[in-house]
Amino acid sequence: MSFEEHRKKAPKKLMIAVLVVSDSRSAAMARGLDEDISGKLIVQKAREAGHRALRTIVPDEKVKIRQAVKGFVADDRIDAIIITGGTGVARRDVTIETVAPLYEKELPGFGEILRRIGYDMVGTPALLTRASAGIIKGKPVFCLPGAPNAVEIGMGLILPELGHIVKHARE
Fold it and tell me: pTM here?
């Protein structure tokens, strides 16, 4: 079966859980301020593509990240998870260390292509992202940088294939 035939059989309307990992955005939310740009951008792009999305913000803490991801994975209404933030090299950037061990299958091409496009756009700073993707219990999980321009690139990669990936992840 060709990828076009697979795409035709893929789900068209998905529920996407968006997890924003950021100490500053989490602290702002605690003060009643929603300063998140990247998470809102993911939700907007998902909705423009015909999907539903919900957004949660947690600090850069392994326990909170793991708890949120496991909750999304256990929720039958959620088809995919997109995480933004915590993919850099700073000490507090722990998204990859927290999420990647949960992958049953890794999708290395996602991070490779994201970095390549980033390199073409901004040069060598693209090396600083550890963006990744994988499958956890039949659900695709994407880890994007927190920068809005990286989210734009990432969503351009994710959305055209998301239904196709969800279909295969469930098989």
Answer: 0.96
Q: Write out the residue range of the structural domain in which residue 133 sits.
A: 3-170
Q: CA–CA separation, 141 vs 124, rounded Å?
A: 26
The CATH number of residue 20's host domain is 3.40.980.10
Contact assessment for residue 136 and residue 102, using Cβ atoms and an 8 Å cutoff: yes
Edge-to-edge order in the sheet of strand 105-106 = 52-58, 15-21, 80-84, 139-144, 132-136, 105-106
How many CB atoms sit inside 10 A of residue 30's CB? 10
* Rounded distance between C-alpha atoms, residue 76 and residue 136, angstroms: 13
First to last CA, the chain: 15
Total count of domains within the chain: 1
Rounded to whole angstroms, what are the CA distances from 36 to 41, 155, 169? 9, 16, 30
C-alpha dihedral (120, 121, 125, 128), degrees to nearest 10: -80
pLDDT tens column, 86-128: 999 999 999 999 999 999 999 999 999 999 999 999 999 999 9
Beta strands in 90-167 (DSSP E): 105-106, 132-136, 139-144
Q: Which of 30, 34, 33 is nearest to 55 (CA)?
A: 34
